[in-house]
Amino acid sequence: EPEVTQTPSHQVTQMGQEVILRCVPISNHLYFYWYRQILGQKVEFLVSFYNNEISEKSEIFDDQFSVERPDGSNFTLKIRSTKLEDSAMYFCASSVGGRGYTFGSGTRLTVV
Amino acid sequence: GESVGLHLPTLSVQEGDNSIINCAYSNSASDYFIWYKQESGKGPQFIIDIRSNMDKRQGQRVTVLLNKTVKHLSLQIAATQPGDSAVYFCAEKREGAQKLVFGQGTRLTINP
Known about the structure:
The complex is a heterodimer of chains A (112) and B (112). By secondary structure, chain A is an all-beta fold. Chain A has strands at 5-7, 10-13, 19-24, 31-37, 44-50, 53-57, 65-68, 75-79, 88-96, 99-103, 107-111.
């Protein structure tokens, strides 16, 4: 069964530091996403990426966030200057158009 | 046992009983719906999906029902097992969009 792989599984960072969360989507998928889940809450959409550009983003995805597909396999989420409220589980997902949405196991980001 | 969206976030059922988890979705333009299972510390795991041109779809031990008239989605799990303990989320996708919008989630616990 194809998987979406995320690294690291847990990242602890100091407030104000930059973090990069990494994902390897499923190889034949065309759409890539980042979602986040604050502890005990629902999963929230951050951004979708298609054809090497952002196709949609939420109001959470402000100037502190950026995404990149630096090569043919990786998809990254960068947070430039982390805040305490950025602490959450971050999930990468990929899909084949409007179906086949598959999520990774997540990166737990803790900002201290 | 049966739950009703945000008003009953926890559902407890006896092992072997059937479970019904409900979800009220928000957007009448949504054309695709997915149920996810999330175990503690893990990412959402696909269970079953349904398109808006259907009102019922069955999988292994699971059935999804869609009522577009009242914008209601339900997940039925037959013969609930201890391994079914998790939080269950419904997610909807609006026609023409790619992002998923998640519901609040229902925690299913199994009593022996």
